[in-house]
Specification:
This protein is of the alpha/beta class. The protein contains 18 helices and 21 strands. It folds into two domains: 179 residues, Rossmann fold (3-Layer(aba) Sandwich); 167 residues, Dimethylsulfoxide Reductase, domain 2. α2 packs across α18, α9 packs across α10 and α9 runs parallel beside α12.
């Protein structure tokens, strides 16, 4: 069980302290060796963290929404939390097709409340994976999930493949912590462990790799399918595919069969290129074929620190990883129909409850045009583009900094988040705001 109740009482503010073994709440690596120095309830130093981690922790008080606000006559007016919750509950109960979206930058208890609220409303609940690694979920539903752990990779892998991923930019400590660190069976990783990169262009990661294979855009499915055929012993009657020569692909397939332990990391360059979930499906089947010869695992390079948790908790509670519709009183699943962008583009959604995300900054323009026309209830610790047009803004505590909880690492391992400092006065966690909205909704509707 990933969602659970954590002890929250007895937390005190110390004038100066050091907190060790803190999980970083930025990316899907969830590096749990961070040490933080705290003075007067503010984090002043981040030890071991990358530049992104340091920015997240050291600037936790910057650009904050410091109080609830409701838009009245086009102007955001500060109100009490009770009035903001009442306004949010009224908008949600009057909606015909409410959408709850986000959830990838908050902790797992919040997810539980979001799913319960969606069920009460008969609405739709979706998370940010529908615009990034949702295709990974679909691919694994069709072909399985040959997942491994990052600890296994560090201790055993002698070949690491990054496909459509640039961890040096997006996950700065991924290589230094799990690939370049010595392991139990890999004492000299720089010599004994090889890094291959498959991508459409040179990247910071490809420049430190042992081998870089540049493929043509949109040809991932063809290249993976040919490698799979070569692994299975088939002969090809073509000379090149995806910009790579068949003889080079044959050498690649033989090398992949001969390693002791291989890992296939993949990112949005695979999940969002032409083919989408079929790319992931083909990659999974390639890993399954390779496991007839040796040991291979496959791990998605997840972005937000708890987007994997959003998928896990959604699957646990609804049976489906994202894009879940409760309009008939029970959960239904249909990516492309119930996913957030598609609902908004079709102008079906008439109110949006946004939790720990920024859809206005990242959704397509036609979706944005509809978002401008409907009420948005925004739960987020900081000012973002969504907060600028929201009808209701309710600031929340930052998970893993100002409140505890649990999150799921990119390899599926749940980790417990730490409360390091107290949130600004009057600010409470996302889960507690959702509980207030649910209580108000049940009081109004007698449910």
């Amino acid at each position: 069980m990933i969602c659970c109740i954590y002890p929250r009482e007895g937390f005190s503010i110390s004038s100066k302290k050091t907190v060790k073994n803190v999980p970083c709440v930025f990316c899907g690596c969830l590096c749990d060796d961070i040490a933080l120095e705290v003075e007067n309830n503010r984090i002043v130093k981040n030890i071991n963290g990358c530049s992104l981690s340091k920015s997240k922790f050291l600037n936790h008080l910057e650009d904050r929404l410091l109080g609830p606000a409701v838009r009245i006559n086009g102007i955001l007016v500060e109100v009490s939390l009770e009035k903001a919750v009442a306004h949010a509950a009224e908008a949600l109960t009057s909606a015909r097709r409410p959408l709850i979206y986000g959830l990838s930058s908050t902790e797992n208890d919040t997810h539980q409340e979001a799913y319960y609220l969606a069920e009460l409303l008969g609405g739709v609940v979706d998370n940010t994976s529908s615009v990034c690694h949702g295709t990974s979920m679909i691919g694994s539903q069709e072909s399985g999930d040959p997942l491994g752990s990052l600890a296994e990779v560090r201790h055993r892998a002698d070949l690491v493949v990054y496909w459509g991923s640039n961890p040096q930019f997006a996950h700065p400590r991924h290589i230094s912590r799990y690939i370049r660190q010595p392991g139990e069976y890999m004492q000299n990783p720089k010599k004994d462990r090889k890094i291959w990169v498959f991508d459409v262009r040179s990247t910071a990661t490809s420049r430190i790799a042992d081998e870089f294979f540049q493929i043509e855009p949109g040809t991932d499915l063809e290249v993976i399918s040919v490698i799979r055929a070569l692994v299975r012993g088939h002969e090809m009657d073509i000379d090149r595919v995806g910009g790579l020569a068949i003889e080079d692909l044959a050498k690649i397939s033989e090398a992949m069969k001969s390693v002791r332990y291989g890992v296939f990391f993949y990112g949005l360059g695979l999940t969002q290129s032409k083919g989408q979930h079929r790319n992931v499906d083909a990659a999974i089947r390639l890993i399954q074929d390779l496991n007839s010869f040796t040991k291979w695992v496959m791990i998605p390079m997840r972005g937000h620190f708890n987007v994997a948790g959003a998928n896990e908790t959604s699957t646990w509670q609804t049976g489906y990883p994202f894009a879940v519709d409760y309009s008939r009183g029970y959960p239904r699943y249909q990516p492309g129909e119930y996913s957030a962008v598609d609902l908004i583009r079709r102008r079906e959604t008439d109110v949006l409850l946004n939790v720990a995300a920024d859809p206005v900054a990242h959704f397509p323009r036609d979706a944005l045009e509809h978002l401008k026309r409907i009420p948005i209830i925004n739960l987020d610790p900081k000012r973002n583009v969504t907060s600028l047009i929201a009808e209701v803004n309710i600031p929340t505590a930052i998970a893993g900094i100002e409140c505890d909880g649990a999150a799921v690492r990119m390899d599926g391992l749940p980790l417990y988040l730490r409360k390091i400092v107290e949130p600004p006065e009057g600010i409470i966690p996302d889960r507690d705001v959702l509980k207030l909205i649910i209580a108000r909704l049940r009081m109004v509707t007698k449910r």
